[in-house]
Amino acid sequence: MVKFYSNTYSYDYNFPAVSLAYFLRYPNPYSRHVASTDTIERYFDPDTQRLTTVRLHVKQSRLPPAVLKVLPKSAVGSDENGRAQSFILEKSVVDVRQGWMETESKNLDWNNVLSVIERHTFRRPEEGLGTADHRTDVEVSVTLKSRIGEQLRKKRQRWGDQATASSVAGAGGEEEPVVKQGWFSSWSSGAVRAAVESISLQRTERSQPKAQL
Amino acid sequence: MSASLAPECNDVKERYDTCFLKWYSEKYLRNTATTDECEPLFRQYKTCLTKALKERGIDQMLEDAKADNKENDAEYMKPVG
Fold first, then answer.
1. Of A46, A108, A176, B58, which has the fewest beta carbons less than 10 angstroms from its beta carbon?
2. Which parts form a coiled-coil structure per UniProt (chain B) (predicted)?
3. ipTM given for this complex
4. Residue B30's closest chain A neighbor by CA?
5. pLDDT, mean of residues B46-71
6. Looking at CA atoms only, how far is residue B32 from chain A in angstroms?
């Protein structure tokens, strides 16, 4: 079960400016949730003139209330305010000769709840010099996948109905085994995954246009 | 300039970032770069960062991600004809 979002648009700025802006995304007043950005790898290939960069971002935000209601408490590592921290790995390759840049960002943690892979391709338009030189074409695609309940399902297949939600959830399971079993049987984990993915897709569709550089 | 997740690395990070932005906009984007001139600064910054990541236990998470990415690397780094 996976959800996709994709979009194409273009910026009224030339490719060099757009690629530079990509590296200067943070800090900015519209992304206060990004607490830090670190470059962990950088490689310049003198033959192809390609620059490969790997960066690590730390984002602090509140989980959407809709998602919070749907998740079992054990999957949520946030504090009482619903505040959570997440690590994002961003990989990018810039080819200045051919005039393109490809990026991929994904979360490193929380993957059991939701995994988001966001890919961008920035390209100098194909048309000849002149008007095309001041534009950059962009393709965005976002892949959303939730794995909630997969562990439980796999365990059930191995051990039969002996396995309970508490044995997979770990800490916090002992106090309320009855509640957890009831929760899982009344709303199948497949439905939870679909719900998490749908909510995330809606948020992606709303926020992607605003996120354009 | 963005902050580092390790405040102790902020200074060396700022020096590296400044060097990179200058090199990137003045050399790389004009197709006149021959080497990564900021590499020495990056090594200093990376030393500080690696220590910080280890202390915070984040290095394992990155190693796991690298293992996943190995297949994608071959595709990305392939020179286009």
1. A46
2. none
3. 0.85
4. A96
5. 87
6. 9
pLDDT per residue as tens digits for the range B63-72? 888 787 676 6
State which CATH number among 3.30.530, 3.20.20, 2.60.450, 3.30.310 fits the domain covering A2-149+194-207.
3.30.530
- The residues spanned by each domain of chain A are 2-149+194-207, 153-186
Strand order in the sheet with A115-123: A2-11, A136-145, A115-123, A100-107, A83-95, A50-62, A34-45
Q: Report chain B residues whose CB lies below 8 A from the CB of A94.
A: 28
Q: Which residues of A touch B64 (CB under 8 A)?
A: 108
Whether pLDDT at A80 is above 80: no
| 3-class state of residue A113 by DSSP | coil
Put simply, the answer to whether A36 touches B45 (Cβ < 8 Å) is no
The pLDDT tens digits of the residues spanning A1-20 come to 788 999 999 999 999 999 99
Of the candidates A39, A94, A98, which has its C-beta nearest B80's C-beta?
A98
Tell me the residues of A at the B interface, defined by beta carbons under 8 Å apart.
Answer: 16, 19-20, 23-24, 26-27, 34-40, 42-52, 56, 58, 87, 89, 91, 93-98, 102, 104, 108-109
Work out whether the CA dihedral A56, A60, A66, A69 comes out positive or negative. positive
Q: Roughly what angle, to the nearest 10 degrees, separates helices B10-26 and A15-23?
A: 180
Residue A179 C-alpha, separation from nearest chain B C-alpha, in angstroms: 32
Looking at the complex, report in whole angstroms how far the Cα of residue B12 sits from the nearest Cα belonging to chain A: 11
